[in-house]
Amino acid sequence: MSVKVYERILELFEAEGIKAIFGIPDPNFVHMFVAAEKRGWTVVTPHHELAAGMMAEAYARMNGTPAVCISTLGPGIALNAGSMMNSLVENSPVIYIGGQRARITERRVRRGRIQFIQQEALFKNSVKWSASIEYADQTDEIIRQALRVCQSGTPGPVYIEYPSNVILEDLDVPPALPPSSYRLVEPGADGNMVAKALELIKNAECPVLLVGHAVQCTRSGQKIRELAELMGCPVIQTSGGTAFIEGIEDRTFPYMFSEVANEIVTKSDVVVAIGTEIGEPVHYGVGMYWKEGNVDRKWVYVELDAEAIGQNRPIDVPLVGDLRTVVPQLSAGLKDSPRTEHAELARWVKEDKQRLTALAEQDFSTPSGRVHTGQWVIEATKAMPEDAIHVRDGGCTVIFTWTYLQSKPRDVIWNQNFGCLGTGLPYAVGASIADGGKRPVLFTTSDSAFLYHIAELEVVQRFNLPMVIVVAVDNAWGLEVGVYKRTFGHGNTTEPGVHWSTNVRFDEIARGHGCEGMYVEKGEDLGAAIDAAFASGKPTVIHVPIDPVINHGGNENKDTPNYERFRTWYAEGQQ
Questions:
Q1: Phi then psi for 514, rounded to 5 degrees?
Q2: Are 342 and 206 in contact (CB under 8 A)?
Q3: Which three-class secondary structure state does DSSP give residue 131?
Q4: What confidence score (pLDDT) does residue 374 get?
Q5: 199-223, pLDDT tens digit by residue?
C-alpha cells in the first residue's frame, strides 16, 4: 500500500498501542496532526514545548506504552530539551520527534539561518538513542529501533529528527508488524535463577517485597498483589513507587516515612526488589535502616537491564527480565505451597493506621492563623476520591505529604529522581488524557511549582478534565527559605530571591482560564471544598494560604517533618 511518511509513522506507533500525540504543530507536523485526528488519536497541544514533553511522560506512565512528543525545528525542540533530560532520569519511554530544515539548507555553510540549530548532536547525551529519517524508506527501521531502545533495558527517551524534505514523500509498504515481530516482548527470567529465588522465599523468616516506580508504569499491580499474598509478606514502597496496589493497601508501607516500614526493613531476611533502581532514596539497600537488624539478608532483584545487576549493591539472585513476566514466574512457583502470613503483619497494619490517625488529630493552630501545611495535606488527601489519580508537585509541600498523607491512591504521578519543579500540571494533564478523563484527578501543589506552567490550565479547561488543583500558597520558595535558615541561622539574612508578591490569587487566575476558582482560608473547610469541586464536574483551582513559617520549618531553625531523613538521600548524607 502507498502511504505518506507521516502516515506510516502513525501506523507504526499504533501497533504499540500509542494513540495520543503531544506538541505544538508547525509546518513540519500539520499533516501528521490532521492524519492523527482522523485516525482517532487524541491530539494535545499545550502552550509550551517543555510542558508537552512532561505531558507525554505522564501518559507513558499511565498507559504502559511509550508516548510521542513532537517539537518544531530550532526553538521548539530546544525548549523541549529539559523534558528529554527529565525523561532520561525518570526512566520514561518518550519518543521525541523534532522537525528540522531540509537537508540542503542544513548542510550549507551559511550564517543567519532562520529557526535553525544543529539538533541531533545537541540532544545526544539527553536520550538513549538518536537518529534522523534521512530517506523515506528508512522510516520503518528507525521508528522500530526507537521503539526497541526506549523499552529495552532501563526505559528512557529517544530522539528522531524529521527533516522537512522527507515529510510528504510516499512509501509503498505492507501493514505494520506487531511488536513481537521486531523486538523482544516481556522476556522471562532464567529458570534456574527463578528456582533459587523461590528457595530463598520459601525458607525465609521475614521476606518482604520492595516495590518501585516501574510497577505502576508497567500496570503490573495485580501481579504484585498475587505474589505478595502468596508470600504472606508486607510490601515496602520506595519514594518513587508510592502508588498503592488495589487489594493490598493495608499491608503496604512507605520506606523511611513510616516507623513500621523501617522496623520491617530491619527484620527482613529476604528482599525481593521489583521495579526499582535500589537508588539513593532507599540508601542503595545498604545504608540507613538496611544497616540494622538482619544485615545478612538476601536480595532477589527483578530487573530488565542486565547492566543494573550489582551496580548499587550485591545481588544474591538476579532475575533478569520484564517484571510483567518474571513476577508471574515466581507466583507460579509458590501456588502449590503458599506461605502463611507473617505473624506480625496484623500488628504492623494496626500500628500504621494508628500513626495516620494520630497525625490527623494533632493541634494545627498557627500564630498567623493561616493553614498549617500538615493540615493542608490531611484535609486534601482525606477528601481524595478512592479511585482518584494523585499528582504531586512542590518542595516543602511534597515533604509534608510523605508524612501526612491520609489516602492510599492507586496511581501517583510526581517527579522523583530528577527533582524537577513545575512538572505537576503537565503531568496531571498527561495522566488524565491517558485515562480518557474517566477518573478524578487530585493535584496537590505549591504556588512556586504551579506558576511554572500555569498556562496549561487552558488545556485542562479545553478537555474539561475532571481535575481539582489544591495550591498551598506561602508566597515564597519555601524549601529555599529553609536552606537560608539552616545555612545562616533564621533572621540573619534577607533571604534574597525567595520571597515574592503576596497579591497573586490562583482562584482568580483559574477563572481567567475558564476553570472554576475557590479560596479557602481555614483548613477544616478544605475537605468540603474539594468534595464540592469534584461534584461540580468542572476543573477547579483551590487557593489555600498556608503558614510560611510552618512550611519552611519554624523560626527556631526547626525542619519540615522528616527533613533530616529526606537529606540522607543525597549521597548517603553528603550533598
A1: 90, 5
A2: yes
A3: strand
A4: 96
A5: 999 999 999 999 999 999 999 999 9
Q: What span, in angstroms and rounded, lies between the C-alpha atoms of 367 and 174? A: 71
In this predicted structure, what is the pLDDT of residue 102?
Answer: 64
Is residue 226 a contact partner of residue 331, using CB atoms and an 8 Å limit? yes
Cβ-based neighbours of 141, under 8 Å, separated by 6 or more: none
Lateral strand order in the sheet of 467-473: 411-413, 389-392, 441-446, 467-473, 540-545, 516-519
DSSP class of residue 24?
A: -
* Ranges of the chain with pLDDT below 70: 101-108, 110-117, 557, 571-575
Pairwise CA distance, residues 149 & 95, whole Å: 10
The 3-state DSSP class for residue 517 equals strand
C-alpha cell of 426? 503537565
β-pairing verdict for 20-23 and 2-4: unpaired
- pTM (2 d.p.): 0.95
Q: CA 127, CA 202: separation in Å to the nearest integer?
A: 41
Beta bridge partners of 443: 391, 469
What's the number of CA atoms in the CB half-sphere (13 Å) around residue 124? 6
Q: Closest by alpha carbon to 434, among 144, 32, 65, 34?
A: 65
Query: Residue 198: left if φ>0, alpha if ψ -120 to 50, beta else—which one?
Result: alpha
